[in-house]
Amino acid sequence: MNPIQNYLVENFIFLIIVFSTYFVVSVKSSVDRDIKVRMTINMTLLLLISINAFYLGYLNDRGISSGAWVLASFFFYALRPLPMVAMIRMVDKKKAANYIPAGLNALVYLTCFSQRLQGALGMSQNLADFLAQYTCTITEWVYWIIFLFVLNMKLYKVSNKNPLGAFCFISVLMTANILDSAGIRPGILVKTYAISFLLYYLMIHVYISQQVNREKDIKLREQRLSMMLSQIQPHFLYNTLNTITALCRTNPKLAEETTVKFSKYLRENMYGVDSREVHPFSQELDHIKIYLDIEKLRFGSRLNIVYDIQSTDFDVPVLTLQPIVENAVKHGICKRLEGGTVEIKSQKIGRDHIITIIDDGEGFDPERVHLDGKKHIGIANAYERLKNTAKAQMDIESMPGFGTKVRILIPGEREKIQRLEGERREIHSIGR
């Protein structure tokens, strides 16, 4: 085989790592462009060091000591410490002083391989040979000291991170450095650097992806806040305040009680956007009762409320049932002059909990609800959160003129409610 074929065979895995890194870096991602550029430069540097080392070995095997050998030897020793500089820059990006030992190393070897410079400096050949033999190794271990110091100062003293992972990584890299410098496994250090750089980039990619997901979660929470506030419809606020104003003249005691209830209602809506995803059904029911008590003051005998609560020992997503009850009052009962009844039931069947909300109001045609041009945000959001957070099922039955029945099945012990921080599913609008 010719020299090129020999190089490709001997460094096949190394080349796969290098070009895999090129490919990964080129893929569109959230990783900063600066990190991608530095990773490309680092891998290109390792590739140049590997090719130069192979070429120098080729010249040595054939006993060639021409100008090409001198140039290849100079680059071999001058470039060798640079990957360690790249490692340090992963931790300490700003200090240009990290390049000083590498620069001094390059100057020493430039002097050692230049007879003219040796003569100008009055350097003996024995000293030149000594420096050529040990300067690169000394420079590498100087960088190891710098690297360990920077790692200790930047990471562990500041952030108190667990050093076990870094210790294993450093041990592997240091072992590769010793094996390479001692001539036991020539070239293993470059391959280890390549694996290290690739793993570093993948870790950065995963970390940034997690940060992006967190930002998305924050945006979702902000959207949820907007949704929660939008559920407190202006007409409900105005009507409630007008009711309280009227009660202040006719029944101050009831006005006071209604004000307290209304304040609690608003507080629960705001509290619903905190870190909790679920709360006990009894707490959700209390919130619904406050809402219905306020509406009862407004509509009087037109609004009848029936509770049939047989089970409360389960959790539901925060503020998911109240929009359904509000839907029954606003779009069911209030559209009939004579009013009607809203019935709220809960029961346990086997391990599952069943919540049923029934009104004998106006009703609607489920097949035509998507054609009315309305967004149905409240019901759609309630269904999405019930499904994603509680693994619940929601069925809606309705008939124009006969009312609406909403049935929610919340699984019991087989599928416990869990908090989801990442996944969100897109759903179609359901309800009125």
From TrEMBL:
The keyword Protein biosynthesis does not apply. GO terms for cellular component: membrane. InterPro entries: Bact_2-comp_sensor_kinase, HATPase_C_sf, HATPase_dom, Sig_transdc_His_kin_internal. The chain crosses the membrane at residues 6-25, 37-57, 63-79, 130-151, 163-182, 188-208. Keywords: Membrane, Transmembrane, Transmembrane helix. Residues 320-412 form the Histidine kinase/HSP90-like ATPase domain. Residues 224-303 form the Signal transduction histidine kinase internal region domain. GO terms for molecular function: phosphorelay sensor kinase activity. PANTHER family: SENSOR HISTIDINE KINASE YPDA. This is Inner membrane protein ypdA. It comes from Urinicoccus massiliensis.
